[in-house]
């Protein structure tokens, strides 16, 4: 699934982002160790489109609460 930005705010995203890479590497290690057993992921692509995926054991209300926290944090970034 892809979503395209409608706010017109375009930053140069032509280079890999070390913070994003570090987070993904940490999450992968946690999944490999069995600590993480389900994921819901949203990503921003270099061309300003977005995608999302869901995999693993994800049928909990706790994940919905965590997703709401992510939404609130993203809204905070957008309104700064």
What is the H/E order?
A: EHEEH
Shape: globular
Structural class: alpha+beta
Largest sheet: number of strands, sense, barrel closure: 3 strands, antiparallel
Radius of gyration: 14 Å
What distance lies between the first and last C-alpha atoms, to the nearest angstrom?
27 Å
**Proportion of beta-strand residues:** 15-25%
Number of spatially distinct domains: 1
Low-confidence stretches: none
- Number of E-type strands: 3
Output the number of helix runs: 2
Arithmetic mean of pLDDT: 88
The percent of residues in helical segments reads 40-55%
**Lateral arrangement of strands in the main beta sheet:** 1-3-2
Which properties best describe this structure?
single chain, 80 residues, alpha+beta, three-stranded antiparallel beta sheet, 2 helices, 22% strand
Describe the protein in words.
The chain has 80 residues and is an alpha+beta fold. The protein has one domain. The chain is 42% helix and 22% strand. Strand 2 and strand 3 (49-56) form a beta hairpin. The chain is globular. The model has no long low-confidence stretch (mean pLDDT 88).
Present the secondary structure layout:
Blueprint: E1 2-4, H1 18-33, E2 38-44, E3 49-56, H2 61-78
Antiparallel strand pairs: 1-3, 2-3
Q: Summary?
A:
With 80 residues, the protein is of the alpha+beta class. It has helices at 18-33, 61-78; strands spanning 2-4, 38-44, 49-56.
């Amino acid at each position: 699934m892809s979503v395209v930005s409608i706010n017109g705010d375009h930053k140069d995203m032509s280079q890999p982002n070390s913070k994003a890479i570090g987070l993904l590497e940490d999450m992968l290690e946690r999944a490999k160790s069995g600590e993480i057993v389900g994921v819901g992921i949203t990503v921003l692509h270099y061309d300003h489109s977005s995608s999302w995926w869901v995999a693993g054991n994800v049928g909990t209300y706790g994940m919905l609460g965590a997703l709401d926290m992510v939404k609130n944090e993203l809204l905070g970034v957008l309104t700064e």
